[in-house]
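ugh ok fine here u go
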Amino acid sequence: MMRDRNIQVGVFVPPHHSNRENVALAMRRDLALVDWLDELGYAEFWLGEHHSGGYQIYGSPELFIAAAAERTHRIKLGAAVISMPYHNPLIVADRIVQLDYQTRGRAMFGFGPGALSSDAHMLGIPIPESRDRMMDGVNLVVRLLDGETIPAKADWYDLRDARVQLEPFTRPRPTLAVA
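structure:
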């Protein structure tokens, strides 16, 4: 067991699984891995979001985090990343707050533009716009988590007096990171 309080060790799992592998079993194995890492004293577990390719099987790291939070006790659970250009900023902020409560402050959220061009292609998102959309969306998510009411419009969202319905469990807000 890792007991040195000066060193924290975490794990990032893309996760890669063979296209020939049983997906339900792969998911069970990933959850068992989180259980084991929690028991060993690891500090963090991060999991990515992907929508194409077939070998990175999680379209919603938040759903995995919710399941893992019910099985674990100490380990922090991170979405690495939420592909911000694919999502409405208000919906992302609401999901963050919900998971912040469900995990009692153990959820962490990374944001990125999306790693797979095939994901962006399938969603009709021009790849050159992805990074700007990510930064715009992350800015709005932070403002929403900070309690602001936001009117904002872009070609990929329309927020009308948008606000999160609950304040975050974690003060001032959950851990956020940008890739």
